[in-house]
Each structure stands twice: as C-alpha cells, then as structure tokens.
Specification:
heterodimer; A: alpha+beta; five-stranded mixed β-sheet; 7 strands; 43% helix; flat; B: 265 residues; alpha/beta; Rossmann fold
Chain lengths: 245, 265
C-alpha cells in the first residue's frame, strides 16, 4: 500500500469535535471508515458518509427533499441541452391522515415505507424517487417519451393499490395514491420551481377528481380555435382609417 | 418604464447582456427590420448591442442590412472561424452575428444545435449590454428554443388578421410552454394612432379567456410600440438601408427610438 506523506497541516484534526458526527453515523447504521482515525482519508470518508446521510430520508432511505431539488436543477439543465423529454411525477398517499388517526403513527410509517419500496420497484433504476414531504413523493424520469408518461404514472398507481401492507400482526391495509405529472419544457427558460409547480397542479387535479388517479399536464398545442379567432377579431375594425381616441 | 423582470425568469444571468428575442409567428411583418433599427437606436443611446440572427434556416438580416459577410455563424458552428472573426460591425453602430447561407442543415433542433446556440449565447453575453435575437417566422422548435434563450420577448404583429392569429398562437405557446408571465408587443404597420393599444387589449382579453390565469399567476401582454405605416419605411426596405440612419426624422424612426427608450427604462 502506498504510504502517504503527511500533507502540510492546515488544520489540526485533534482539535475537531467529531463526537456528534460519529454518533449520527453510528445511529444511522453507517459503517465507520477503515482508514486510520483522523487521517485525511478517514476524515474524507466520514464527510462522504455524512453527505450521504444528509441526502437521504431517514424513514425510507429514499433521496430527501434537499437532494431532490439538486437533482431536479441538474435535470432542467440537461433537458435544455439534450432536448430529451423528462417527466416529473408528484405522488401523494390518499387519506394518509386517516391511516395515522386510525392505526397510529407506527402504522403510518409502515405505509410510507411500503409505498416507497413499491414505487422504487416500479420505475427504472435510472429514475430518481424522493420523499419530499410527509406522505409526498417525487419521481424524476429522465428520457421518458411523452406518449408513455401516463402509462408509467398509472403503473405506479396500480402497483401501490395492489399492495397489502401489514401494519400489525394479521392486520393488512390497502392504500391508494394520487399522481400528478408534467414534462420538462425543452426550452432553456425553466426552473426547478416552475416544473414542480406544474406537476403539483396536476396532483391537485388528481385529488380533486376523486383520488386514486394519475393526471398529466395536457400537451399544449399552438392551434387557434374558431372561437378564439372570433373573439380576437370581434371588436377590431381593421379597415377604418380613422385615428382612435 | 422598464420591462418588468419576469418572476419566472430562470437563474439570474451570470453576467452581461440583457437578452431580448424578437419573434412574430407570421413572417413578413417587419421583425428583422425592427430588430436592426432597434439595435441602432439602442447603440445611439450608448449601448453595446449584438444582433444574433437566430433564423438559422432562412436568415435575412444580411439582406436587410445590405451586408455581404465572409464569415457567419455557420463558420463558427463548423469551427472554420472564431466568434471574434464572425462578429461584424453593422451600419448603425452595433454588431451582428449573421446566420449566413448553408445553415439549412442547422435548421432542425438537434442536440448539437441546442448545444452550439447555448454555448454562443454564453460567450457573447459578457461582451455586450444587449443581445437581440432575431428569430425565424413560425413557432417551430428552433424558434421556440431561440426565444427561450432570451430573458425578454417582443412579439411583432401587424393589424392583418393572419398576423394577429399567429402572434396570438405564439404568445399562447410562450405563456404556457415557457412559463412566460410577461411578453412585449410591437404593432407594426398600424393604420392609425391607437391601433396598437386596441390590438394589445384585444389579445390580452383572448389570452385571459382561453389561456386563463393559472392560480396565483397573471399574464401580462404589454404594448411596447406602435409603428405606423410610413413611406420612409418602404424606402428604407427597398434600398436596404437602415431607416434610423437614412430617415431619422420619420414617424417610424421616432417609434423605434421610443421603443428603445422603453427598453432602457
């Protein structure tokens, strides 16, 4: 093994208070690095483990909101350059409060974990599944063709509805989810916030239309209907030469 | 009054130029003519201006300005010229980056074209106060992509029903697909004073009715200029001269100067 020469000491590792960091890692079940304690390699490994910890959700081990937002920003940039279609799905467990109220928070946690697993297993490995709120999840699907978007969302919805979740010995529970989705605009002008808002709007629509359903933003076309034209020309007397007030 | 910064604007531009796309839907409404003269008006106010011919398939900025460029955007794309070499001085005290012929192969929005345009915009932005993007006609993906490179948009329309219909379709697409909350309108070839205001109001009404304000958002179409039919415009177009240089006193030139003032705030 290569022997590392000591680098010029910019910091004295002995002075660092690492107790809390190490406790956190231990509690999260993360393996502590094999390197010699307080060596640069060891410190780097501890930092890496902390980064990983801070990008994941404790309950489901899915990517958390912070990390999701970073991934979404990257995807917006990528779509602008590649022109590929990318879909963002927002998913919310229906009537989750009732689960908590009826069966307790432990059962609620079980449901969230089961839904997280089911979603992960339904999408492609390249897709990113994140837990972005209590019972709310987000899925980024890069390179997802527009004509398959709804089918993907429906498959996730069906997969969750087929789950039997054992919340207590012998007590099985079924839940449904609502999904809303929007494709990334393939133009430069977009932002993670706008994209999320558009997907969220479809999620509200799915909820309002009765839950256990998936709604995608309709593809907007540039056709101008006869009704629109009628209104457009209604009060324009375009032949008149007279100046207007 | 300055153009309101669009709250939906992407990450703040890293540095330099304000980017303004000029588009129209229908062709032949004076888009390139207005862009060139607007550039001259901004330059006359001491601004450093570049006009980028983003009409890759059917460029005609060179025709309007009577330029015969040896080097164009095409040469930059194919790495036969550097950006410095292809940025040319135009009459009127501004710079141009012309698309040139042979760009037909780039008139489809391939990842390569996206990447090259993004790269060029990034390179020119720090060097100018304004980058005006003269886009092609229509609402093809190349046009929409070019528009999306700009923070602000001006849509040029004439009072002709076909032009209004196409302008409306363009604005509708920009509002919905590009999440634009603010678009500027220039009514060209107006027949009478006040026609621009009337047209802008009418378009805004139809947009409100059919595109609809999404919750918590409003869309504003703002009249940025009304350019009336003018004999001097026809003369300048036919002689391929910059109207602002050769007919600086005409009504249309005054309207263009007012448009520049409005943009400068």
């Amino acid at each position: 093994m290569e022997h590392r020469l000591p680098a010029p000491a910019l910091i004295d590792a002995q002075l660092l208070d690492l107790d809390q960091a190490l406790q956190l890692l231990q509690q999260a079940g993360a393996l502590l690095p094999d390197e010699e304690p307080l060596s640069a390699a060891w410190l780097q490994a501890v930092l890496n483990a902390l980064c990983d910890l801070s990008s994941r959700d404790a309950l489901t081990s899915l990517v958390n909101r912070r990390s999701f937002e970073m991934a979404l920003a990257r995807e917006v940039d990528r779509v602008a350059r590649s022109g590929e279609a990318a879909l963002l799905l927002m998913l919310d467990i229906d009537h989750f409060k009732a689960v908590n109220d009826t069966y307790g928070h432990g059962a609620g946690d079980q449901v969230i974990r089961a839904v997280a697993r089911a979603v992960e297993q339904t999408v492609r490995p390249m897709d990113l599944v994140a837990r972005v709120g209590g019972e709310e999840f987000a899925i980024i699907l890069p390179n997802c063709a527009t004509h398959v978007g709804l089918a993907v969302a429906q498959r996730v919805r069906e997969r969750v509805s087929e789950l039997g979740i054992e919340v207590a010995p012998g007590q099985m529970l079924n839940v449904t989810v609502s999904l809303g989705g929007a494709f990334a605009p393939q133009w430069v002008r977009s932002s993670p916030l706008l994209w999320t808002e558009r997907a969220d709007r479809q999620l509200y629509r799915a909820k309002a239309e009765g839950r256990n359903r998936a709604c995608l933003e309709p593809q907007i076309d540039s056709l101008v209907s006869a009704e629109e034209k009628g209104m457009l020309f209604a009060s324009l007397n375009l032949d008149t030469q007279q100046d207007l007030p | 009054m300055s153009m309101t910064t669009d709250p939906a604007a992407p990450r703040p531009t890293r540095s330099g130029a304000r980017t303004l796309a000029v588009t129209s839907g229908k062709g032949g409404v004076g888009k390139t003519f207005i862009t060139a003269n607007l550039a001259a008006a901004l330059a006359a106010r001491g601004e450093k201006v570049l006009v980028l011919d983003a009409d890759l398939g059917l460029a005609n900025l060179d025709v309007v300005l009577n330029l015969h460029p040896k080097l164009t955007l095409h040469d930059v794309f194919t790495e036969k010229a550097t950006l410095e070499q292809a940025i040319l001085p135009a009459p009127g005290g501004f710079s141009v980056l012309l698309a040139g012929s042979g760009m037909v192969e780039y008139s489809r929005l391939t990842p390569e074209v996206r990447d090259k345009l993004l790269h060029i915009i990034d390179l020119v932005k720090p060097r100018f106060d304004w980058v005006l993007l003269d886009t092609g006609a229509g609402i093809s993906d190349v046009v929409l992509f070019a528009v999306s490179l700009a923070t602000d948009v001006l849509v040029v329309a004439t009072p002709e029903p076909t032009s209004l219909t196409d302008a409306y379709a363009t604005i509708k697409v920009l509002a919905t697909q590009q999440d634009r909350r603010h678009v500027g309108l220039v009514v060209n070839q107006a027949n009478r004073v006040g026609e621009g205001k009337l047209i802008c109001g009418q378009l805004q009404q139809v947009l409100q009715r059919f595109v609809g304000p999404t919750p918590g958002q409003t869309f504003k179409l703002e009249l940025f200029g009304e350019i009336r039919s003018d004999q001097a415009v026809r003369q300048a177009v036919l002689k391929r001269q910059l109207m602002l240089e050769h007919y600086p006193g005409c009504d249309a030139a005054q309207s263009i100067k007012a448009l520049a003032s409005k943009l400068l705030g």
